[in-house]
Amino acid sequence: MNPIAFYIFGVAIRWYGILIALGMLIAFVVAKINSKYLNVNYEQFVDCALVSLPFGIIGARLYYVIFNYSLYIKIQ
Fold it and tell me: Which of 15, 39, 68, 70 would you label with 45, given CA atoms 20 to 30 Å apart?
């Protein structure tokens, strides 16, 4: 399977990016539905999620770089 789904203005859109975005969208929809039953303020959830998502993405990238550090250093 080709890892690139399609191109938008010359920028490759990859399948893993589509699946991650779809997973986040599904999580927001499920949270919206469950917030009614659990008496949770959905707006506070959205605020928290929008702040924590960038930190999660940065943390995941740092985790990858730390455990694959040999790929990023120049071995002489």
Answer: 15
Query: pLDDT tens digits, residue range 31-57?
Result: 999 999 999 999 999 999 999 999 999
DSSP 72: T
Beta carbons within 8 Å of 72's beta carbon, 6+ residues apart: 65
Q: Is the separation of the CB atoms in 7 and 13 below 8 Å?
A: yes
Q: Are 54 and 62 in contact (CB under 8 A)?
A: no
Measure the CA–CA gap between 44 and 40, rounded to whole angstroms: 8
Tokens of 23: 């997973």
